[in-house]
Specification:
mainly alpha; Arp2/3 complex 21 kDa subunit ARPC3; about 0% strand; globular
Length: about 180
């Protein structure tokens, strides 16, 4: 399905998947080097979640699942939690956001920011729930509300910047869905 949907958009699957993998590697380095300095109450911004949300909203469920998987695997390499929670959560999030926004290809900056913020809230709740079911009881606590608030705020603030970066890195300027012309004012 992903091969068919990407070919209809004048893209091929292998360069798209390769672009997603390379994008995730670059963003992983940025996330664990530069963004590890920025924290609000020991909660750091999560670029892998933001990447999955943006790609799923613009390119559908298949691209969201691929991005969520690679983002989650790379993100789990830098965490102390059991391996696999992030990929599972990001794949679920990428799928459902991709399905929800499959027909909508234009966002205003504000609606994209709200989508990223609420997507972050869904991710954090889903991550804590999956962790709780897998036997990690410390994930659901009073601090979860604070983590959800920080995730909403950071995704709301950073989404337009990263949407342009994602568009620049994955596509040429003609087919760039994140160019200035695609945002509705």
């Amino acid at each position: 399905m992903v091969a068919q949907s990407l070919k209809t958009q004048n893209r091929t699957t292998k360069p798209f998947v390769f672009g997603i993998v390379m994008l995730n590697i670059v963003l992983w380095i940025i996330n664990f080097s530069l963004f590890s300095v920025f924290s609000i109450g020991s909660v750091h911004p999560d670029i892998s979640m933001l990447t999955t949300i943006v790609v799923a909203c613009y390119f559908g469920a298949e691209a969201g699942v691929i991005t969520g998987f690679f983002s989650g695997v790379l993100f789990d390499l830098g965490l102390t939690t059991p391996f696999g929670f992030s990929p599972l959560t990001l794949v679920i999030l990428g799928f459902f956001l991709g399905v929800a926004f499959a027909k909508k290809n234009q966002f205003s900056r504000f609606s994209l920011a709200l989508t990223a913020g609420f997507g972050a809230m869904i991710y954090e709740i889903l991550y804590a729930s999956i962790s709780q079911l897998a036997g990690q009881p410390h994930m659901i606590s009073a601090k979860l509300v604070f983590i959800i608030s920080v995730a909403f705020l950071t995704n709301f603030v950073f989404v337009v910047l990263f949407a342009r970066f994602i568009g620049w890195s994955l596509f040429n300027k003609i087919n760039n869905p994140f160019s200035r012309k695609r945002f509705v004012r």
